Amino acid sequence: DHLEAAGHVCVLKDASDLESSSGVAKLIEAENLEAALALHLYRGGRLLQGHGVPFGIIFGGTDLNEDVNHEEKNKVMGKVLEEARFAVAFTESMKEVAETQWVDPVFTREVEAKVQRTLGVRLVGEMPQGDLHAALKNCFAVVNSSVSEGMSAAILEAMDLEVPVLARNIPGNAAVVKHEVTGLLFSDPQEFVHLAKRLTRDPALERDLVARGTEYVRACHSWQAERHTYQSLIRTLEGSIQD
């Protein structure tokens, strides 16, 4: 009633009636749904993963009191929270249970306190992709300071948006950033400061990194090429099924 009073059209469904993620996919398509709200992190939330529709979670109680003790359910719920745009807890104790299980509250408070004490640094929460890309385009550079990466989407997005990249010299980053060619790699804070100052003082270096980074990402990470590759792979699977 609250949501419909605000002008939204709502479809209410029992998770047990949908049975599987495919049932949710059919519902999303049939009703042309634009967003979803799930009650219970495991029973409802797990059905919403991977559909491309933004969703939020309301903790039900048994998800935090019972399902959290089941190893497989705990893993699934953690993945759901990573994809959810927000989570609602009815009590502080429920919130603390969730934070203990999936966020690190002590470390979070330390980071927030450090940011508040540091001049010129702001902590920005999650934002829609379009807004994020608009913000990146207005940045002088994108910094990836991760200590572990597989393949950094942030680096590839920055290159595609023609923004210079400074990244920590770890295997995942070094696989997509060639030092002084497509970006700059640093190993410690002192080297980062040195390279950042160099980049701000050398417009020619900035132009070269942007040009070569853009060329690299469009040649080696083209979505058109990936589409063709995956279509070919799927055809291979289809051939195996027919055989």
TrEMBL record:
List the InterPro entries: Glyco_trans_1, Glycosyltransferase_G1
Q: Which Gene3D superfamilies match?
A: Glycogen Phosphorylase B
**Record's keyword annotation contains Glycosyltransferase:** yes
Keyword terms: Glycosyltransferase, Transferase
Instruction: Please list the GO terms describing molecular function.
Output: glycosyltransferase activity
Against PANTHER family, the record matches this protein to:
GLYCOSYLTRANSFERASE 1 DOMAIN-CONTAINING PROTEIN 1, PTHR46660
Supply the name of the protein. Answer: Glycosyl transferase family 1 domain-containing protein
Organism expressing this protein natively: Suricata suricatta
